[in-house]
Specification:
Shape: globular
Helix content: 40-55%
Order of helices and strands: HHHHEEHH
Number of strands: 2
CATH topology: Arc Repressor Mutant, subunit A
Low-confidence stretches: none
Mean pLDDT: 91
Organism: Streptomyces inusitatus
CATH class: Mainly Alpha
InterPro entries: HTH_HxlR (IPR002577), WH-like_DNA-bd_sf (IPR036388), WH_DNA-bd_sf (IPR036390)
Structural class: mainly alpha
Number of domains: 1
Keywords: DNA-binding, Transcription, Transcription regulation
GO molecular function: DNA binding
Number of helices: 6
CATH superfamily: Winged helix-like DNA-binding domain superfamily/Winged helix DNA-binding domain
Protein name: HTH hxlR-type domain-containing protein
Radius of gyration: 18 Å
Distance between the termini: 27 Å
Length: 147
């Protein structure tokens, strides 16, 4: 039986799941990557319960994935903006989107496509070697323990 948390596991994936591994959290990050910054905007785009959104945004702020920035004094209102850490999740979100397009396609086709701003060509996230900069097919990736 799986525990409710991954505390105590010496695994970067488990630590990552502690922060972003909940369904609504990834959908909030996706909406933020698409430009949503305000609480009501997240509510409209996600059709999420207010309490769930409040909790998830608070956790993302607590972990440094988003920052809470005031945009109005009376009444006090805030925007939720991705930090550098949050923007670094763009590749992970793209990989999950591409996986879903490939393995769980909609009968109407993909709803969105990531495009290169320079030429409007499709963006594909592929692993590549940090030493020789060669693209690496999935079946040529090896993960091995370092300690």
């Amino acid at each position: 039986m799986l525990r409710r948390t991954y505390d105590g596991q010496d695994c970067s994936l488990a630590r990552t799941l502690e922060v972003v591994g909940e369904r609504w959290t990834l959908l909030i990050i996706r909406s933020a990557l698409l430009g949503t910054t305000r609480f009501d905007g997240f509510l409209d785009h996600l059709e999420i319960a207010r309490t769930v959104l409040t909790n998830r945004l608070g956790r993302l702020v607590e972990h440094g994935v988003m920052e809470r920035v005031p945009y109005q004094e009376r009444p006090p209102r805030y925007e939720y903006r991705l930090t550098r850490m949050g923007r670094d999740l763009a590749r992970a979100v793209l990989v999950l989107m591409q996986w879903g397009d490939r393995h769980l396609p909609s009968e109407h086709g993909p709803r969105r496509r990531a495009e290169h701003l320079g030429c409007e060509g499709p963006v594909v996230v592929l692993p590549h070697c940090a030493t020789c900069d060669t693209p690496i097919p999935d079946d040529e990736v090896q993960v091995r323990p370092l300690r």
